Amino acid sequence: MSPVCRLSSEGEVLILDGGLATELEADGFDLNHPLWSARILLEAPEAVRAVHARFLEAGADCIIAATYQASFPGLARAGFTGSASESVFLSAVRLAVEERDRFWSDPANRTGRRQPLVAASVGPYGAFLADGSEYRGGYRMDDAGLAEFHERRLAVLAGAGADLLAVETIPSVREVRVLSRLLERLETAPPAWVSFSCRDGERLCDGTPVTGAAADLAGCSRVFAVGINCTAPKHFASLIPKIYAVSGKPVVAYPNGGGTWDAVRKMWTGPTGNPADALDFAAPALEWRRLGAGLVGGCCRTGPEDIRAIRQAFAGEFA
Predict the structure, then answer these.
(1) Is the distance from CB of 236 to CB of 228 less than 8 angstroms?
(2) What is the pTM of this model?
(3) Which of 15, 68, 69, 92 is spaced 20 to 30 Å from 157 by Cα?
(4) H or E element that contains 120
(5) What are the tens digits of pLDDT across the range 147-175?
């Protein structure tokens, strides 16, 4: 069953995974590097596989491959040729697919579950800059430059064997529009979601009203869901209905745990938005679902315990 069909079912929701980088840091890896989690993909791929496994075991219906920070310019900066960079993208998706298939091959994991999906992450231009621009969006790059940055990677990931494309943490309405055009030009591609990073309950990080960005995606046939990620949880109850009303598509909602991203030290600082008790993450997730969210999970500073709490909450509501 396609993701779109899943979301059209009464009461259906796709539970996403949580913060891949957060879990890698918890495992002792240093992500203070321009390639961030993609560095661990290159140096210790089994560690990435182990994180995928933990999220699947926690109840995720979709795991996101470790391609967010990987880009052709970023990998070139690290000494990779174009073909070697393509291999990095393909290997990240293949690793996630293999772990999904391993999980699903165990009959014990199929009780009350549908086969999980794999999404290939498409991060923003700001992630390549590695200076926190994905939380500002004030790029010094014109539309042609943004298109050149995204086009080849998008084409490779579209054909990498993932079930979905996760075009995520997009802070700029110009980048949203460029990506929408590129998605429509792909000859073949899996369904995509596009999610914004937002500064408050009304605007993208670049200051654009979220309704304007969502409206730009309403007519994009490749995009099956529109939403928000890596944004403080307190803003989601305001953002979700605005996006749903304008786009007419299921909303994807996966917040970070709160705090501020320190782009110099490559780490989150400040208090988290979630209490230590992971079960408290479930109540807002249920509210977001009622407001129009069809995909719900977590981003940075969320872990398997949060995903488990969300799955248990939805299991109780739709039982």
Answers:
(1) yes
(2) 0.92
(3) 15
(4) strand 117-122
(5) 999 999 999 999 999 999 999 999 999 99
